[in-house]
Amino acid sequence: MDDQTRMMTGLTGLGGLPQADVDPDSVRKQQSLGQPQQDIGDILQQIMAITDESLDEAQARCWPEESPAHWGGSDDPTEGGRAGGGMAGGGLPLNFQHRKHALNCHRMKPALFSVLCEIKEKTVLSIRGVQEEDPPDPQIMRLDNMLLAEGVSGPEKGGGSAAAAAAAAAAGGSPTDSSIEHSDYRAKLAQIRQIYHSELEKYEQACSEFTNHVMNLLREQSRTRPISPKEIERMVAIIHRKFSSIQMQLKQSTCEAVMILRSRFLDARRKRRNFNKQATEVLNEYFYSHLSNPYPSEEAKEELAKKCGITVSQVSNWFGNKRIRYKKNIGKFQEEANLYAVKTAVDAANVSAQASQANSPATPNSGGYPAPCYTPDGRL
DNA sequence: TCGAATGATTCGCA
DNA sequence: TGCGAATCATTCGA
């Protein structure tokens, strides 16, 4: 339970002002007026008396003397080591002490406190409330996604090596071909990851410490001015926003570092390597068995990419190059075309035979047409 | 070393 | 956005 709550709950059921401050007029008023009216008049009178002195001045003189026990609900004005002297608390008049204490202990104070809080909620919060429900920043989301994809943020489950492996695959080489770049990339990415997490941890710690500090300050201040829990929450949210903007800078610079690393790694990829024989065979097989329509669908490209151990875009590049080069020099590719047409037909026949001599004969190409066989001049 | 082969990139177009 | 076409850059074999 925090101080303020303790103060509020502790005060319930107290008997009102202490004897020292109850003057005969008050008693008469209490007799002639209703109890609530007397309370309000009384408490306002107390406030007027206290506001003669500035809050800062009063606080400066009062805080050194205050102890949580004092605010805990006791109605003994002498509690807290102030008994037995005309002056207490660095020369603060005992009368002031009593008045302040009486005000804090007054049973109407919680109600007044909540009313003041409500007024604040309606004025201040209504102005600032608009900013509170900001949608998640798309830039942060992009940064988060990128860091996650690169394996920098999130659980370490070989993200870096996965990214490196993907890049290596994109290079078209076997994993061993690029093992040196791979391990280098992984080591540097791990370094970036370590720095990122270490900095993030520092920021989070600083944020947490600062938030606690501010919350404590506000709780302290809530003894002398109306500060609702909602207001404290709002303040915490403001702090978090400030710190998240710092975090965004960290994320940005981390992303930049990853991009630089990646571009360096990708530059290495530009060193073209020919696809291996088996991959070229698979691609050619598809190309010549679909010669009437050598445009693989996205699914087919994915399938081919998987079979060949290359990326979908490499498959697209290959088919793009193949189509244009085939078209430019059909004669030159004729032998190759015939070779694959025969191979496809033989494979199809084997599949057909294995399928228990099924009635529906398998066809070598997707369109249901026989594999094209060309004359050396390029005609069907 | 040179030329062919080949993967990647860029640009314009529909 | 996918394609054709041109071109670049690299690999490979004679």
Automatic annotation (TrEMBL):
It is found in: Nucleus. GO terms for cellular component: nucleus; transcription regulator complex. Transmembrane segments: none annotated. InterPro entries: HD, Homeobox_CS, Homeodomain-like_sf, KN_HD, PBX_PBC_dom, TALE_homeobox. Residues 1-36, 64-89, 357-380 are annotated as: Disordered. Pfam families: Homeobox_KN, PBC. GO terms for molecular function: DNA-binding transcription factor activity, RNA polymerase II-specific; sequence-specific DNA binding. Keywords: Activator, Developmental protein, Differentiation, DNA-binding, Homeobox, Nucleus, Transcription, Transcription regulation. Residues 35-267 form the PBC domain. CDD domains: homeodomain. Residues 266-329 form the Homeobox domain. Residues 268-330 bind DNA. GO terms for biological process: cell differentiation. It comes from the Eukaryota. Its main location: nucleus. Belongs to the TALE/PBX homeobox family. This is Pre-B-cell leukemia transcription factor 1. It comes from Seriola lalandi dorsalis. The lineage of its organism: Eukaryota, Metazoa, Chordata, Craniata, Vertebrata.
